[in-house]
Design goal:
nine-stranded antiparallel sheet, eight-stranded antiparallel sheet, single chain
């Protein structure tokens, strides 16, 4: 995992991101706990305070969250309340672990008060997040982090989270301890592939030789109804026979369009055939070079928004990315379900276009600032 971190804090609560405990203090006050129950790919280790011991280790299904809790640890003395839990979910499709956890937090009604996004080199985004929730009149503070690992037995990935929890009045005194817990754990038998899917290389030579990766569950189709001015591919994500996401890719030579706005407006003209279509998009944003992870992309534009039609009962999320090289324009347009609490289709679609952009002419997933 690369150390590319984006932190958003809250002045009312400390959010340590560097450990200041001495080695001697850690050795005296913490112990290494090994979880080796059940399937091998669930085994993990975690560093816990000496006064925090296992309470429940048998798997507990939390149906409303689609999670399985595989570890609960609580303080065993009269010190301030501190609890640690580890849970996971198996999913067949590739997502950012950060997006996966944020969905769970929304379902639980957790208020995010500080967060740190950590960008993986090829495996997507992770998150370290501080939350607050009122439970029976008491504010509870929790800090979460996530892991993701390929499931060698049945494919897909196991998405894991760890949670350290205390009461608000005790949080400042326990903040470094909670930070120590949620940043010092890992899988014992971690695989060599921390993604839910294998990646399929895609290649095209219409403008120039290009290549990028696509998750294996996405199917590429070439649009034969094109002239010689552009090349068009459609990537579809079909689950149980139903389409849950589409990414349209259009490749042009640079002299076809004067600027990105003209290219984008030309593409969006095709939506005008729907009479009541409401297309709401953010302004075209050129991404600063320091924020482009892929070192082989120097010019990148982003747009996001929604598509809605009451007549057609069509409501969708739209994400557009445009890459410009010295020879070509590369337009990527993702259309799929809006963010919701019922499924992960939005998260899966977001991750697919992210993989396409980060691997564009960069199949080794090199990073600009590693």
């Amino acid at each position: 995992m690369m150390k590319n971190e984006i932190t958003k804090g809250n002045k009312d609560y400390s959010f340590p991101v560097e450990q200041t405990y001495t080695k001697e203090y850690l050795q005296k006050n913490f112990w290494r706990c090994l979880y080796t129950t059940g399937e091998e790919n669930l085994h993990y280790w975690v560093i816990l305070p000496q006064n925090v011991k296992p309470n429940k280790l048998e798997p507990i299904n939390i149906s409303e969250l689609s999670l399985i809790n595989i570890g609960q640890y609580v303080r065993e003395d009269n010190s301030p309340y501190l609890e640690v839990q580890v849970a996971y979910e198996h999913d067949n499709y590739e997502m950012n672990a950060s997006d996966w956890l944020k969905k769970k937090l929304a379902i639980m009604g957790e208020e995010i008060i500080a967060e740190r996004i950590i960008k993986g080199k090829s495996t997507g985004n992770y998150i370290d997040v501080l939350c607050k929730k009122n439970v029976a009149g008491t504010n509870i503070i929790s800090r979460y982090t996530v892991l993701k690992d390929y499931n060698n037995r049945k494919g897909g990935a196991n998405y894991f989270c760890i949670k350290a929890t205390c009461e608000e009045d005790s949080y400042e005194a326990l903040s470094l301890t909670m930070f120590q817990i949620v940043t010092n754990w890992d899988l014992i038998h971690k695989s060599d592939w921390q993604m839910a899917e294998l990646l399929t290389p895609f290649m095209d030579e219409f403008v120039e030789p290009i290549k990028f990766f696509v998750p294996h569950s996405w199917e590429a189709k070439y649009n034969t109804n094109t002239d010689n001015s552009f090349s068009n591919y459609v990537f579809e994500h079909t689950i149980d026979g139903k389409n849950k996401g589409v990414i349209n890719c259009f490749f042009y030579k640079t002299d076809e369009f004067e600027n990105a706005e003209t290219l984008i407006n030309t593409q969006l003209d095709r939506f005008k055939i729907i009479d009541d279509l409401k297309l709401l998009l953010t302004p075209v944003e050129i991404v600063e070079i320091k924020d482009i992870q892929n070192p082989y992309i120097n010019t990148l534009y982003n747009i996001a928004g929604t598509l809605d039609s009451d007549i057609e009962s069509f409501h969708a999320n739209v994400t557009i990315a445009v890459i410009k090289t010295s020879k070509g324009w590369y337009y990527f347009e993702s259309i799929g379900p809006k963010p919701n609490l019922q499924n992960n289709y939005w998260e899966v679609n977001k991750r697919c276009i992210q993989i396409m952009i980060n691997s564009f002419n960069n199949l080794k997933f090199e990073v600009r600032y590693s």
